Amino acid sequence: MKYSNLIVVQEKGVCTISLNRPEVFNALNTQIKEELLDAFQSIEKAVCPGGEPRPDETIRVVVLTGEGNAFCSGQDLKEAQLMQGQKYSDILRKYYQPIILSMQNLPVPIVCKLNGLAAGAGCSLALACDMIIAADTAILSELFIGIGLVPDAGSGYFLPRMAGRLKAFELATMGTKVSAEEAQRIGLVNQVVPAAQLNETVEKLVHYYTHAPTKTIGLIKKMLQQSYQMTLEEMLNYEADLQDIANHTEDHREGLKAFIEKRKPNFQGK
C-alpha cells in the first residue's frame, strides 16, 4: 500500500511512522486509519511499509509520532459528522480495535515520540505504545466527554491501569487537559524533555533498543500484558515457560559469553 497520510521510514532496524495530516492536527480519517493498520501489520512481516520487502533488515523498534505541532487530535469529527447513521461500534471494530491490538501484539517495542497534542483516540494511540517520551509542550486529553461519548480505542483499558481508577475517572469524565509534566507525575508518560531535545532523547532510546536482545523484549512485552489477567501462581508458571524460550535465543548465548569474557554483549536480535 502506498501511503498519502503517513510517512514511514525504515533504517538500521528502526521503523518510524509519522502521522501526516498536520493541517488538521493529524486527525484520524478513514484513509489514515487504513494506512496505520497496514503499516503495523506490515511491520510484523519485517517489511518496510509502503516499500519493497527487505528481508535482510529486521525491525527492532518502532517510533510513532506526528508531523507538525500535534501528535494526533483524535477522530476526524468532520468526517464523523458525514457518517451520521453509521454505528460507531462498526467503525471501532473495523479500524481502531485492529490497530490497537496490532500494536500490542507486535513483538518489538513501540516508542511514542509525543511531540504535541494527543486527544481522544489520539491519546489512546499514545497510551497503546510501550514507552512515551513527551516534549514539555505536549498535552494529553480524553476529550470524548466533550461530545457526549465514552473513551474508546483502548483508553478504557489503558487509562485506569496507568493512572489508577480514581484519576482515570476524573480524566475521562472531565476531559481534563493534562500537561506533559502532570502526565509524567501520574504515570501516563515515561519522560518529559524540552521540545528542542525530543528528537535527540528518542534517538538515544532507539539506539538502546536496536542493540538490545529483541526477542527477549518481545517476550517481556507479552509477559507484562498477561500479568493483568493472571494469578501469581499462573504468572510464575508463565515466566518459567517464557524463560525456556529466551534460553534458546542466540542473544542469550551471546549475553552469557560476553559476561564470561567481561565485555559488552553484541546482541543481534536473534
Description:
It contains eleven helices and ten strands. It is of the alpha/beta class. The protein folds into two domains: 6-210, 2-enoyl-CoA Hydratase, Chain A, domain 1; 214-260, Lyase 2-enoyl-coa Hydratase, Chain  A, domain 2, CATH 1.10.12. The strands form two sheets. Strands 1-2-3-5-7-10 form a six-stranded mixed beta sheet, with helices on both faces. Strands 4-6-8-9 form a four-stranded mixed beta sheet. It is globular. 39% of the residues are buried. Mean pLDDT is 92; it is low at 47-56.
Can you give keywords for this protein?
2-enoyl-CoA Hydratase, Chain A, domain 1; four-stranded mixed sheet; Lyase 2-enoyl-coa Hydratase, Chain  A, domain 2; six-stranded mixed sheet; alpha/beta; 270 residues; globular; 11 helices
Report a brief summary of the structure.
The chain is of the alpha/beta class and 270 residues long.
List the helices and strands and how they pair.
Blueprint: E1 6-11, E2 14-19, H1 30-44, E3 61-66, E4 70-72, H2 77-82, H3 88-105, E5 110-114, E6 117-119, H4 121-127, E7 131-135, E8 139-141, H5 155-163, H6 165-174, E9 177-179, H7 180-185, E10 191-193, H8 198-210, H9 214-226, H10 232-247, H11 250-260
Parallel strand pairs: 2-3, 3-5, 4-6, 5-7, 6-8, 7-10
Antiparallel strand pairs: 1-2, 8-9
Helix pairs in contact: 1-3, 5-6, 9-10
State the total count of DSSP E strands: 10
- CATH architectural grouping of the largest domain: Alpha-Beta Complex
Overall body shape: globular
Strand content: 15-25%
Biggest β-sheet: strands ordered side by side in the sheet: 1-2-3-5-7-10
Stretches where pLDDT falls below 50 for ≥5 residues?
A: 47-56
Structural class: alpha/beta
> Helix proportion of residues, in percent?
40-55%
Order of helices and strands: EEHEEHHEEHEEHHEHEHHHH
